[in-house]
Design brief:
40% helix, 14 strands, alpha+beta, 21 helices
Length: 754
């Protein structure tokens, strides 16, 4: 398999030479927007509805009328009338035919009339002057089959030595292709670039940085016959080489450090994959190994973080982490998540839009729907997550440090649980009276008390709907403090001089007040305070006021008596205190005589009510010891955690989703290779219940196989794409990026087909 760096270096100059020949023969280029309109709107209509009868690939060209080249459109058919009159769609034969404006001229024949939108696009194109980027030589356009050239085995056919070939052009086989193309166009090579130009071109291309003045001067004065080769080697060995070229590969694999979708949270531990790519380029890692590590690094390199991190490739793409309680929606979200992995794998390594076959057979490539699900079967056990990546020694050392602390933590926890079990049993025997008041409500909870004067109101939050032991991360959308009487006022309002004080649990860098405590007394419902630690809210009133009730809510817009799923936890256990000076406090209400919101809340209440002083003291001592152990555990450096995905054995065989709908499973599909390459590249097929890691490894090795014709061709095209237009070579010696290194036959085959 081709060495990635060597291959990249070899193609650096090749792209420019090919471009030079193309520029000479190209006509005046059309505006980009006109080319886009033709390719996106016009050509698909012609291919789908017209080429069957009016192109060079038709079994019998009807009426001598060809639509697969600009010349055919201008010439027209046997009638002698041009198919189009640029700028005049109403007078154009093509438009009259597709509009069914004349009897006997309806096109396409014996088929439904084209959609009005398609006809309008054709008319717009002609009105624009019929811009046509196609060459005069018609190109066969049809749905590919297994005979398509890129699906054939790689082969090399070197052109013969050109007559009068300069000696410098025979140093590398690639030069023979370039020179032959130049001579065919009656072009001659440019003269050699001078050394000052050459070192700048090399430096910018290989490292993205200009050479220093000292480096330029050194190269200009170096008269060694190997000066150029040594310059190339030095630049290839620079760490900036991997940084420069790694960014291109990161684009290919859709590297991003947020998950997209509605939350778009930052993934702060994806960077090790970026460094892995740079390191792989700088160490000249073989590309086949690079591929295998991308798909199965955890399988081939367990306990080797520098290898295992490669599999992060699978989970670099966007995904919906919000979740959905609806089973159908959840299934569609999961299908979209795996689809991203299939699409990235197909495009990065094979140059195929395999994902187009998710709902139906591919429209252009010979990829049936079943093939999409064969590849999906290899990735069905992958999920987005971070996990520790460490060596065996690192794991062992970490375990040695935490094991005794965890064992002591377990012992203390069990001792505390024994006390709590005894307390709960005693409370059960006491059979306490039921609580009379209803549980707290997400919509509106009110506490009333005898009117009294206060300047400060404190809400101490003890538990929320998801945590019976803490209210940290609870949500409040409004907290109101009311005066008594017919003309009651909410004196907690900021508009009335009230000031809210409390810790906020979530921060927003873009909008500081997005989750802040000031939301609880702004008089608006919907936006919520995210309660921090400590879970205490204090309202300072503008003046000493006589008050007799407070009202608070989690979601005042919900009109329901239960916390609303998806809006976060609601406050369910609390105490309310009043004060005149902020120093001396009096409790005026609590939630303890309300019905417990859920069983965990009922349990905590019973512990609070029936724990005896000696038991409370012992429990507090155990809690102190547990807190000390937790503090010691936090001081132990954790294992490095990387966004490298998690892998779980699929519980069910992969099935075809009819129409791409995961709620309509069809036939079971084995993890297997694409059938279109079965005759070229040795196929594989695994059992329906094959181990998860074995599935990904088999796919990786099939893609990286020397017999797979697509992988090398796609790599060549990508490198050509990145070099195209960089202007780095002028002479055959400038192809010295190869530095005497052997050219790969796949590169030669690709060049011949270009």
């Amino acid at each position: 398999m081709v060495r990635f760096l060597q291959f990249a270096a070899g193609l650096a100059g090749l792209a420019i030479a090919l471009r030079a020949g193309a520029v000479v023969v190209a006509a005046e280029p059309l505006p980009a927007e006109q080319v886009a309109f033709f390719e996106q709107k016009v050509r698909p209509i012609l291919v789908q509805h017209c080429y069957e009868c009016h192109s060079g690939q038709a079994k019998q060209v009807k009426g001598g009328f060809l639509l697969d080249s600009p010349g055919g459109l201008a010439k027209g058919g046997d009638s002698g009338e041009p198919a189009i009159r640029p700028g005049k769609p109403d007078e154009s034969l093509l438009i009259r035919a597709v509009r069914h404006a004349e009897a006997g001229l309806e096109m396409p024949p014996a088929k439904p009339k084209l959609a009005e939108s398609a006809i309008a696009d054709l008319a717009t194109w002609i009105k624009l002057g019929a811009p046509d980027p196609r060459g005069e030589t018609a190109v066969e356009v049809k749905r590919a089959d297994k005979t398509w050239w890129s699906l054939q085995p790689l082969r090399v056919a070197l052109p013969p030595n050109a007559e009068g070939m300069p000696a410098a052009w025979s140093a590398n086989p690639i030069d023979r292709y370039v020179l032959a193309a130049l001579q065919e166009k009656k072009l001659t090579p440019n003269p050699p670039a001078d050394r000052r130009v050459l070192i700048r071109r090399l430096s910018y291309d290989l490292t993205g940085l200009p050479p220093t003045a000292e480096e330029v001067e050194s190269f200009l004065n170096d008269r060694s016959p190997r000066a150029y080769d040594q310059l190339v080697d030095r630049l290839l060995e620079s760490p900036h080489y991997g940084e420069r070229w790694g960014r291109h590969w990161l684009d290919v694999v859709r590297f991003g450090e947020s998950n997209g979708f509605e939350r778009n949270f930052l993934i702060e531990n994806a960077w090790p994959f970026r460094d892995y790519v740079i390191r792989s380029l700088n160490t000249d890692k073989p590309f086949d190994q690079f591929i295998v590590e991308h798909l199965a690094g955890d399988v081939v390199g367990p306990d080797q973080p520098e290898v295992e991190v490669g599999v992060a490739f699978l989970t670099l793409g966007p995904y919906d982490d919000v979740g959905n309680q609806d089973a159908v929606a959840a299934a569609n979200i999961r299908a979209a998540t795996t689809d991203d992995m299939v699409a990235a794998t197909g495009s990065a390594f094979l140059g195929l839009t395999i994902n187009c076959a998710r709902c139906h057979h591919h429209k252009f490539d010979p990829v049936p729907t079943e093939d999409y699900y064969r590849i999906k079967a290899a990735l069905d056990g992958v999920s987005h997550a971070a996990r520790p990546l460490a060596t065996k020694e690192m794991r062992s050392n970490h375990q040695t440090a935490v094991r005794p602390l965890n064992e002591e933590k377990k012992r203390l926890t069990e001792e505390r649980e024994q006390i709590e079990t005894a307390v709960l049993a005693r409370g059960e025997e006491a059979n306490p009276a039921p609580t009379p008041r209803p549980a707290t409500s997400a919509y509106r909870t009110e506490e009333t008390f005898a009117p009294q004067g206060a300047r400060f109101v404190r809400l101490t939050m003890l538990a929320h709907s998801n945590n019976a032991k803490s209210a940290v991360d609870a949500r409040l959308d409004e907290f109101e403090v009311w005066t008594p009487g017919a003309e009651a006022r909410n004196v907690a309002l900021a508009a009335n001089g009230g000031r809210a004080v409390g810790s906020t649990g979530r921060q927003s860098k873009d909008f500081v007040e997005a989750y802040g405590v000031e939301l609880v007394n702004d008089g608006k419902y919907g936006a919520r305070w995210f309660v921090g630690n400590p879970a205490v809210l204090t309202i300072e009133l503008a003046n000493l006021e006589t008050i007799d009730r407070v009202v608070f809510s989690h979601d005042r817009t919900a009109m329901t008596d239960a916390p609303v799923p998806g809006l976060g936890p609601a406050l369910v256990e609390y105490e309310i205190h009043l004060s005149n000076d902020g120093e001396q406090w009096t409790k005026v209400a609590d939630s303890f005589d309300r019905q417990p919101f859920n069983p965990p809340i009922a349990r905590e209440r019973r512990l609070r009510q029936f724990t005896e002083p000696a038991e409370r003291e012992k429990t507090q001592e155990l809690n102190r010891q547990l807190a000390a152990i937790e503090a010691r555990l936090r001081k132990i450096p954790p294992l490095p955690v990387v966004w490298a995905g998690k892998f779980i054995q699929p519980q069910q065989p992969t099935t075809v989703f009819r129409g791409g709908d995961p709620t309509k499973p069809g036939d079971e599909v084995h993890p297997a290779s694409l059938s279109v390459l079965d005759q070229v590249c040795p196929p594989y097929e695994l059992a329906l219940d094959a181990p998860e890691g074995e599935r990904r490894l088999a796919l990786a090795r099939w893609i990286a196989s020397d017999d797979n014709p697509l992988t090398a061709r796609v790599l060549a095209n990508r490198i050509w794409q990145y070099h195209f237009g960089t202007g780095i070579v002028d002479t055959p010696s400038d192809f010295g990026f190869l530095g005497g290194r052997p050219s790969h036959p796949e590169l030669l085959d690709w060049l011949a087909r270009s």
